[in-house]
């Protein structure tokens, strides 16, 4: 029986193709590595100096954390104190999303821009912009910009159907009015008054089990900041979603707006 012999010799032109392919893969890998290195954020000298004061391997009391963060401040403006909370919620379960309002004892140290959508179209009055239904199209077409022209929307119930047109712009930013936050009402004056007294909306991120909240700035005393942090954590526990398998508050971190974060004991 004759055995068939297969010639497995690589032709010169095929070898050249393989070499080119290997070279291209090598270049792509090198390019991606350079890209990653370029995107790595270079920290400022001030940030590095702050890291020497704030040891993120330790867990501090709220009092210790506030004092250390104040000591590590380096910006030329008044920095805010931010509280970041890892939550034990299931983000795929809409019933476990956290959203409620509360009034921090000492406010957050900044004014809130309010857009009221109702029958009134009297325009700007301090930090409140009173607009009628035409403002909804202005949001859709970018003439009224979230976080620039307004931080909160209060809408009359009659406006909600029309406001649905802007839901794709407002929803991802958590700015759609909601009965949970009292921002759907025919009496916006009461909500505006509460906001002026320090009322804030506490909400978890849409697709992440985390919550970010400003709890004041460093023109406040340490005692005022500590009181705000303690109030936030207490209110979180009170508003824990039902049927949770885990504890709501998993880990808590405090940071200034320009500095590194440190962990706080629960």
UniProtKB/TrEMBL annotation:
One Pfam assignment: Ribosomal_L1
Keyword Repressor on entry: yes
Provenance organism: candidate division WWE3 bacterium CG_4_9_14_0_2_um_filter_35_11
Biological-process GO terms, alphabetical: regulation of translation; translation
Translocase listed as a keyword: no
Protein name: Large ribosomal subunit protein uL1
UniProt xrefs under PANTHER family: 54S RIBOSOMAL PROTEIN L1, MITOCHONDRIAL, LARGE RIBOSOMAL SUBUNIT PROTEIN UL1M
One GO MF term: RNA binding
